[in-house]
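Q: Sequence in, structure out?
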Amino acid sequence: MHLQLQFLYSLRRLGIKTGLDHTLSLLNHIDNPHKNFLSIHVAGTNGKGSTCLMISSILKAMNLKVGTYTSPHLIKFNERIRVNNFEISDKYICSFLEQNERKIKQIKSTFFETTTAMAFSYFNDQEVDVAVIETGLGGRLDSTNVIKNPLASIITPIAQDHEHFLGSELTQIAGEKAGIIKKNVPVISASQTNEVKKTLSKKAREMDAPIFFEGTDFTW
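A: Exactly. Output:
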């Protein structure tokens, strides 16, 4: 396990690459597991992880088998990938990396791209009913945005975030996060500033996606 994690963490030397090509290539290599389960996609700046865990708890209480993919981890890598709150096993991590190391090296897949593919592979093998997926960086070009037809797109409060990747203006950042909004898929958003709300609403209109804002359309 130590050697496999060492290999996985070594992929961080490749830095952060925005774009979906490497993730799609790796997923295609393992027969596109992300197409075999339902999902809920979560983006934003603050509270993404907590939101994912709350949604997962609600779904689990409905007797569904629920996958959860979040980052970063607090103590050990396995925390990132869970099914019904049980962490992915060391055995599965080692097996996935051993089976796909050659492809990972060939396409120079990054740490997050590889981890995303591993999560989707695990959820498929575990036959989850639904997976709750947290974006890693932004939304539009985030590895997790290979999900094409989620049940819902969730957007937590948006603030200044990774400006060197997403842009210096709040509207630019919101535009990148809005990249998870899909055609006809409902969007549920936390309360946002007016400029962010306008950006998200514009994207939702373009995608014919109904959008609901906390404080305007619903309260809790």
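The mean pLDDT is 90.
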